[in-house]
Design a protein that fits this description.
Layout lengths: L3 H9 L4 E2 L2 E2 H17 L3 H19 L6 H9 L2 H4 L15
Antiparallel strand pairs: 1-2
Helix pairs in contact: 2-3
Length: 97
């Protein structure tokens, strides 16, 4: 027996979408495409490159946990770019005991 209330709650946790694409992939592809347009590339090249970036991000996300891209940004981007809180260095930790 299916519980319809549980299906509704699980549907509320879905990520935001723009048309049929996750919102973070759509925004990053749009920013990349805008950057290529500012450089002066032809429109078909810009559309193909932005779509290719979105496709690569979408396929690389399969099988990964939620927030995987944020974890990658935390570990690989410098602190000035990522705006994520940093943990103190190992020598500054206090142990209880």
């Amino acid at each position: 027996m299916d519980d319809h209330d549980m299906q509704i709650v699980m549907g509320l946790k879905d990520p935001w979408k723009f048309l049929f694409v996750d919102m973070d992939i759509a925004m990053l592809s749009a920013c990349f495409g805008f950057m290529l347009m500012v450089i002066g590339l032809p429109t078909p090249v810009v559309v193909a490159a932005a779509a290719g970036l979105g496709y690569v991000m979408h396929t690389s996300r399969k099988g990964k946990p939620k927030g995987y891209a944020r974890h990658l940004a935390y570990w690989y981007l410098p602190p000035m770019l990522s705006r994520l809180q940093r943990v103190p260095p190992n020598w500054a930790e206090r142990t209880v005991g």
